[in-house]
Amino acid sequence: MFFSSGCAIKERYVEPKSDEPRARLNTNIKTSNIISVVTVVDVVDGNVKCGEKYQGAKRAIAISRGNPMVEDINPDGLWVNADREINLVMLMANDGFACVHNAKFTPEAGGIYELKASGHRATCQMQIISRVEYDSSEVEVSKPMGCIE
């Protein structure tokens, strides 16, 4: 007999180089977990056909609190390509409940953005805001990523 176990490794998102147009996407994730929470954010290729899997998903962020099986990836944020639309899908598993949220936005070169997410049991929300450092204001820049019929 032969037994095998393990986890599939998702391809990771590759951050743009410093000489390419890029923007900073920081994370601000709040949960009310009792046991554990895992939040993962993938960058996906374009819109998806309704009812089908997201195409070209690459793991950009993974944050685990209370689950040693999940490796943290970019828990404080990462650099993203600027001047073109980016599509994000977040899965949050919180104390045995899970929810999915998605968003898209077009970061400007040199911009600073924040992925704000929160979760409580089976509900979660995610938004991308633009951070203006000199006056501490914030403006939501994300829109839901729809599906194509």
CATH architecture term: Sandwich
Largest β sheet strand count, sense and barrel closure: 5 strands, mixed
Rough shape?
A: globular
The low-confidence parts are none
The top level CATH class name: Mainly Beta
Percent in strands: over 45%
Q: Count of DSSP E strands?
A: 11
- DSSP helix fraction: under 10%
Secondary structure category: mainly beta
Number of domains: 1
> Averaging pLDDT over every residue, what do you get?
82
**SSE pattern, N- to C-terminal:** EEEEEEEEEEE
Major beta sheet, strand line-up: 5-1-8-9-10
Fill in the CATH topology.
Immunoglobulin-like
Number of contiguous helices: 0
TL;DR?
By secondary structure, the protein is mostly beta strands. The chain has a single domain, classed as Immunoglobulin-like, CATH 2.60.40. It is 0% helix and 51% strand.
Task: List the topology elements.
Layout: E1 22-31, E2 37-44, E3 48-49, E4 58-65, E5 77-81, E6 86-94, E7 97-105, E8 112-120, E9 123-132, E10 137-140, E11 147-148
Parallel strand pairs: 1-8, 3-11
Antiparallel strand pairs: 1-5, 2-4, 2-6, 6-7, 8-9, 9-10
Provide an overview of this structure.
The protein has about 150 residues and is mostly beta strands. It has a single domain, classed as Immunoglobulin-like, CATH 2.60.40. Helix content is about 0%, strand content about 50%. It has no helices and 11 strands. It has strands spanning about 20-30, 35-45, 50, 60-65, 75-80, 85-95, 95-105, 110-120, 125-130, 135-140, 145-149. Strands 5-1-8-9-10 form a 5-stranded mixed sheet, with no helix packed on it. About 25% of the residues are buried. The mean pLDDT is about 80.
